[in-house]
Amino acid sequence: MDGDINTIKNKIRKQEHYLDMMNSSINGCIATNKIVIKEIDQLRKERSLFDVIYKQLETEICQKNKELLRLIILTDRTKNEKEREHQSLEELKKTAADD
After folding, report:
1. Using CA atoms, how far apart are residues 90 and 99, in angstroms rounded to an integer?
2. How far apart are CA 6 and CA 8, in angstroms?
3. The whole model's pTM is what?
4. Which of 33, 32, 36 is nearest to 44 (CA)?
5. pLDDT single digits (tens) 12-24
6. How far apart are CA 83 and CA 7, in angstroms?
7. 3-class SS letters over 3-57
8. 19 burial type by CB count under 10 A (0-12 exposed, 13-18 middle, 19+ buried)
9. 99 by DSSP, 3-state: which?
10. What digits encode the pLDDT tens for the residues 83-97?
11. Is 41 helix (H, G, I), strand (E, B) or coil?
12. Rounded to 5 degrees, what are φ and ψ at 88?
């Protein structure tokens, strides 16, 4: 009977040791999960900040493009007016030379 009791005690000790190892493993996983959750939260904050910055840059680029288009149109108009004035000046010079 003592052999049976010792065998049972030995099995219980092995099971307790196994449970302790599994408990340590689970605690390690929980600690790792907490670290990963903090990292994910930090990355989400960064993403949110980058989204705000991206939106601002996108708006600024759109405004700059509109301003650039406005300046291009203004430049074309000015160039066309300059050419017309130059032609008028040439015509006046011809008229003056003919007289």
Report:
1. 14
2. 5
3. 0.60
4. 36
5. 999 999 999 999 9
6. 110
7. HHHHHHHHHHHHHHHHHHHHHHHHHHHHHHHHHHHHHHHHHHHHHHHHHHHHHHH
8. exposed
9. coil
10. 999 999 999 888 888
11. helix
12. -60, -40
Residue labelled with tokens 């030379």? 97
Name the residue with tokens 């989204």.
51
Task: Give the separation between CA 68 and CA 2, rounded to whole angstroms.
Answer: 96
Look up residue 69 and give its two tokens.
């288009």
The string of DSSP codes covering 58-82 is HHHHHHHHHHHHHHHHHHHHHHHHH
CA distances from 77 to 2, 71, 85, 91 (A): 110, 10, 12, 21
